[in-house]
Amino acid sequence: MSFSGVKLPEFDMLVTRHTAAAAQMEKLASLLYGELTSAGLDTTPAERIRKLATQVGQEADDLRKRQRIVREIERHKITLGTSVATGSLIAVPDSLRQAQGQLDGTLAAKAAAAAGRGDRKAMAELQKYAGRVNDPEFVKTFLSKLGAKGITELPAALGLQVRANVNSTRDPQQVKQVQQVMKLLATTLAKGTNPKDEAFMGDAFLNQLVEEGRAEHKALEVTYVGYQAQALIWRASDGKPPFSERFMEVVGRDAILHQKELSDSRTPYANSMDLATVLGISDSMQPGGPRMGQPGEPIKASVIDDLAQAAQYSLPAAQALLFHTPKGWNKSIMAYLLTDRLDGFNKTGNHAPFAGLLRTALSSKDKDSLKHTNEALIILKNELDGVFGRGGDGKLQITDTEKLKRLSFLAGPIGSVMAAHIDKVFTVFDERKPDLKGINHAEMDRLLAFVGSDAAATKSLVEAEVQRMLSMVHESYRRDGGEQIEDVLIPEARFMGHILETRRLYLLAQAKTDEQVKEEMKGMINSVLSELTGPAGKFATRFGFFGDKAHEKLTPMAFEKLSALLVDRMLRDGMTTGSAMQQASNDRTMTMSMIETMMLSARIAHGQWSDKALEGLKDAPFATDGSPPTLKPLHEIMADPATFDVFIKWARWHAKTESTTQTIREAMDHSAGWDVHDNFGIDRNY
Question: Which strand (E) or helix (H) includes residue 82?
Answer without folding.
Answer: strand 81-84
